[in-house]
Amino acid sequence: MRSVIRKRRNTQGKHRKVPALAGVAALAATAALGGGTGAAAPAGQLVSYHGVSLRVPADWPVIDLARQPDTCARLDRHAVYLGTPSDSAACPPRIYGRTETISLRPAAATAAPGSTVVPRGIPEAAPRTTDHTGRFALAAAGVELTTTYGSRPELVDAALATARVTERARPRAIREPEAEPAVSTKVPGTFHGYGFDSCAAPSSATMDAWLKKARFRAVGVYIGGGDLGCPNQPNLDPAWVARQTGKGWHVFAMYVGRQAPCSGEPYRISSAAKASSQAKADATDAVEQAKHYGLAAGSIIIHDMEYYPRGGSCSTAVLRYLSTWTATINSLHYRSGVYSSRAAAIDELVAARKAGRYRMPGTIDFAQWDKKPTVGSSAIPSNYWVRHRMKQYWGSHTETHGGIKLNIDADWLYVH
């Protein structure tokens, strides 16, 4: 596979007022979690974390990441995650699809860019956003709350309706995030060589160790998208980007937006007729996220279009979507890229370019797992995307450098 917190559109939810902490009782017993069916559902299980309590469906696993640091906090399965994901988490580099999850972790003194500081209480519902994610800094408990949803956001709404700040909470002053990072960097810059991508951005300590021992000098990061199933990024922020680029890393940004309507992915293009409007929404969101992560205008943002069976209206929808993605990204002063299997969207783009149809991305990133670090391919004419190619030449595998193990995809880049 190829996850910024952004300034979200249409996400202003109401926030419930709660009494002073000294008088807050423990969580009351029930909430219907029936997903809007009208029938009463079991009360579910009680979850408590640092003074925040809520009830979730009984079949959702509740995972304490401090006790289970090797567990991947993936967003494609119903779950509640407590604590901060670890670099040692056993995440494959590609996780797609997003469903209903809730994450609670200690809040930082300054809220992440694009998140909302909630002085009192807890949000009443999951905000409806382009990438199906909401993030809140709960000052009354010093906890960061993140929600994701797929097709049933009402499940998260029902859980939040039961949420309370209890007497165990320890309030913390949390500063509002800055509207834009103080420093921004154009990425990936001019680079010819080895790169890798992993599900979540590694810690700076890991990046330093790999810089000393590994052959890689480029790193891919996922900045968002409604089909992204990777954990919420515990390390990725503008300071991380500035630090890694300052050390010599070439960062390349990926966004997992809508997928082909004939694919098995949950977040799909609705139809060929809606492809352009949905691409415009995703591209606009991708640029907002890029800005919040400190990626300057002129940076390449790569849309991750996973494999799909080509043909008919499905191919038409994909090409319309990617054409509008490129037009929108470029109009917002960033540079468009597309990642896909060489046998899927890349072959479609080659054929469309020969026919002179659709807007073409400035950079292609193709998956061809032959373990050959090169950007050449007999299926792509040599005069297409010259010096604007990337190749994922080796899929999911584990490498250890400087004593630190990561599950990665390996890439070869030739970009300007």
Automatic annotation (TrEMBL):
Signal peptide: 1-31
InterPro entries in the record: GH, Rv2525c-like_Glyco_Hydro-like
Keyword annotations: Signal
The keyword Signal is annotated on this UniProt entry: yes
SUPFAM superfamilies with a match to the protein in the record: (Trans)glycosidases (SSF51445)
Signal is among the record's keywords: yes
Gene3D superfamilies in alphabetical order: Glycosidases
Domain of life where this protein originates: Bacteria
Residue stretches making up the Rv2525c-like glycoside hydrolase-like domain: 211-412
A Pfam family matched in the record: Rv2525c_GlyHyd-like
Name of the protein in question: Rv2525c-like glycoside hydrolase-like domain-containing protein
